[in-house]
Amino acid sequence: MLGLKLPTDPRWVNIVEKNIEEILTDHAYCEQKAASTAISLIIGFPEKSELVKEMTALAREEMGHFNMVHDKILKRGWTLGRERKDEYVIELMKFFPKGGSRETHLVHKLLYAALIEARSCERFRLLSEEIADKELSDFYRNLMVSEANHYTMFLKFARKYGQKEEVDQKWNDLLDYEAQLMKDLGKKETMHG
């Protein structure tokens, strides 16, 4: 369904279970960054009314998810830790060349966002099925559905604002690149890394 070319090694859940506090902190910041991405798309492309409307709703939803994760942290007697670098996103963002038209820049941002959401959805599914913590299993099952919707929305907008054949080729190339990245990731208690 997600089109990912390399699934996460299920042993990643074992790493996560050894440091739930760390994964929740990382997850909280991922939700905050997703809201920031939505806001940056509004700021960068205000003339795209349908996109603005969807990104406004998405920013609210992602901040709602941030709040839900933050509540889980507080419920366990912890506090939100410091933000970490997301090595996955840093490496992913190197794929498309810099420059180009505004439309090309928009398509690239949308494809990056679609892939990040797809990988998050895949990780949430894995957590929902494999993590021993029943509360977190249920929590990630519910979030998984939301992330799948985000992935398809970003891909739909990329195809709307770019030439479909070209966008589909870029998407497939990005999926191949991401699969290579994932070979070296999945060894830390972070949502993507």
Automatic annotation (TrEMBL):
Top-level division of the source organism's lineage: Bacteria
Classification via Gene3D superfamilies: 1.20.1260.10
Stored InterPro entries: Ferritin-like, Ferritin-like_SF, tRNA-Hydrxlase_MiaE
CDD domains hit by this protein: MiaE
PANTHER family named among the record's database cross-references: TRNA 2-(METHYLSULFANYL)-N(6)-ISOPENTENYLADENOSINE(37) HYDROXYLASE, TRNA-(MS[2]IO[6]A)-HYDROXYLASE
UniProt-recorded name of the protein: tRNA-(Ms[2]io[6]A)-hydroxylase
Natural source organism: Flagellimonas okinawensis
